[in-house]
């Protein structure tokens, strides 16, 4: 339901499925997109309840969604247009290059804590975390810029350096190829 209201895959900015699983078990849910109709929002929250007995079954879900749809059809055009415009403006940034969109894996998780519903304060704290995206001007100093994430930074620097080497090698191969092509063209004149 969240994917329908947002147009995005939930938790798209998370690299590791383990993090997503643990957050969901601990009651964290995706932040509901502003402009989502209240009835739909409430139904989505019902579906997210940790207790399966509190979740609507498929028939109840179908009935409630049809009712919401019917109510939205009866909405005035201006109100409907403003809701659509609001949703468009507040869409989460799309990231189609994320491999989770194209692949699926089977994971065997063991010794997980008992699932629970997060309280509103926990949800708010989760969605309002401050992320430090400080990137130094000199890539060689990247590893020194953030001591707390030394391990992650080191991996990123290695990836950048490997990519830089590969690009340089491709450029050299391209120049050699262009030189050879140019020489062949001159010889064939």
UniProtKB/TrEMBL annotation:
InterPro entries registered for this protein in UniProt: Kinase-like_dom_sf, Ser-Thr/Tyr_kinase_cat_dom
Please state every residue range assigned to the domain named Serine-threonine/tyrosine-protein kinase catalytic. 1-63
GO molecular function terms here?
protein kinase activity
Q: What is this protein called?
A: Serine-threonine/tyrosine-protein kinase catalytic domain-containing protein
């Amino acid at each position: 339901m969240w994917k329908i209201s947002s147009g995005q895959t939930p938790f798209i900015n998370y690299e590791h499925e383990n993090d997503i699983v643990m957050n969901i078990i601990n009651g964290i849910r995706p932040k509901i997109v502003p402009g989502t109709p209240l009835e739909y929002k409430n139904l989505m929250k019902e579906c997210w309840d940790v207790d399966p007995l509190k979740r609507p079954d498929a028939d109840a879900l179908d009935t409630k969604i049809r009712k919401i749809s019917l109510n939205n059809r009866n909405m005035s055009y201006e109100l409907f247009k403003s809701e659509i415009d609001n949703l468009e403006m507040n869409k989460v940034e799309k990231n189609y290059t994320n491999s989770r969109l194209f692949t699926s894996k089977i994971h065997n998780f063991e010794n997980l804590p008992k699932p629970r519903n997060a309280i509103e304060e926990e949800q708010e704290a989760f969605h309002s975390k401050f992320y430090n995206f400080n990137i130094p001007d000199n890539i060689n100093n990247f590893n020194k810029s953030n001591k707390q994430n030394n391990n992650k930074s080191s991996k990123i620097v290695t990836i950048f350096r490997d990519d830089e080497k590969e690009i340089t090698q491709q450029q050299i191969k391209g120049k050699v190829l262009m030189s050879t092509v140019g020489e062949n063209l001159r010889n064939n004149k």
